[in-house]
Amino acid sequence: xxxxxxxxxxxxxxxxxxxxxxxxxxxxxxxxxxxxxxxxxxxxxxxxxxxxxxxxxxxxxxxxxxxxxxxxxxxxxxxxxxxxxxxxxxxxxxxxxxxxxxxxxxxxxxxxxxxxxxxxxxxxxxxxxxxxxxxxxxxxxxxxxxxxxxxxxxxxxxxxxxxxxxxxxxxxxxxxxxxxxxxxxxxxxxxxxxxxxxxxxxxxxxxxxxxxxxxxxxxxxxxxxxxxxxxxxxxxxxxxxxxxxxx
Length: 247
Known about the structure:
This protein is an alpha+beta fold. About 45% of the residues lie in helices and about 10% in strands. The longest helix is centred in the middle third of the chain and has 20 residues, at about 95-115.
């Protein structure tokens, strides 16, 4: 191919595509090229032009352009390893935009670590002070959590709206060491996720869902963090009733 970009690593092209959960046909459709042409880039027999590489990097794979010139694919946690409680079919259903949100959350954790010299600035850290287990009594755990957050039923009943309730709960949870972020997810059935860390645990909420759903997601993900687990919350969580995998 004429005007091909020199120095692109075919292995990185393949890695970036697979990390986004895309097939060669998906990429070809978005670029309006033949699948055979895209496949030849990943074999190294041909290479995309610079404008094609820019579209791959910024619009399709959502990666810095320079990453495609690295000698090998960068090390990055695999979603399947990070979210072991999710069955394979749920991982396969994650849209490219959701996969990008997960990478964005990991980048935020790295930034928080750098900005705070590796130490969570909160005086109280709920993810260390409280712990849950799958055998925990739900009413007892809820009472323990309410006591720790110092929100009485009377105070909760005084909140005038779900908007205020969401703000109050979020403020309380952030005050005890959990970082809560909100964004609009293109994949509407994903209501949020959490990524555990022993210093900077993150909860990420889909801002396009109803406020009541956001409150539910906030506590759903907090419970996973208290179990020291990563999790992705979807509107359809029938997989929770499936037997645990051997992994």
